[in-house]
Amino acid sequence: MQRIMLRGKLHQARVTHAVLNYEGSCGIDLDLLDAAGILENEQIDIYNVETGDRFHTYAIAGERGSKMISLNGAAARKAAVGDRVIICAYGLFDESELAGHKPRLVYLDAQNNIARTGKDIPVQLT
């Protein structure tokens, strides 16, 4: 059996650009892509914390060091500049790969600086 598991996440990223007339995708600072282990042209899911919208697109390289999170094309209609989003990449894993699997979690501040990284999501408490 194979399972779809979280591989990498940019948590609480701020949208810096929304460019309707640009080829559809999400431009992400190369430093942030590297930190989360997301590759150019990889499918990503984006969750808008402000509106609850969820959608698929693909990652493209944004200028290294720019802190860019740019929603382009149709995706530009899914969030406004300043909205907080969660960007996730998933992978298909065999049962034998699950024991050692840990996602690359990247937590960002309001300026898209890396505030911290991790590999474990805390247990949700009541």
Features:
126 residues, mainly beta, 9-stranded mixed sheet, 2 helices, 9 strands, EC 4.1.1.11, pantothenate biosynthesis, schiff base, Asp_decarbox
Strand order of the largest sheet: 2-6-3-5-4-7-1-8-9
Strand segment count: 9
Query: Based on CA inertia axes, which overall geometry fits?
Result: globular
Number of helices in the DSSP assignment: 2
Helix proportion range = under 10%
Overall average residue pLDDT: 96
Helix and strand run: EEEHEEEEHEE
How far apart lie the N and C ends? 32 Å
Strand content: over 45%
What is the C-alpha radius of gyration, as a whole number of Å?
A: 14 Å
Parts with pLDDT < 50 across at least 5 consecutive residues: none
Largest sheet, if any?
9 strands, mixed
Which structural category do the helix and sheet elements fall into?
A: mainly beta
Keywords: Autocatalytic cleavage, Cytoplasm, Decarboxylase, Lyase, Pantothenate biosynthesis, Pyruvate, Schiff base, Zymogen
Catalytic activity: L-aspartate + H(+) = beta-alanine + CO2
Function: Catalyzes the pyruvoyl-dependent decarboxylation of aspartate to produce beta-alanine.
Active site: 25 (schiff-base intermediate with substrate), 58 (proton donor)
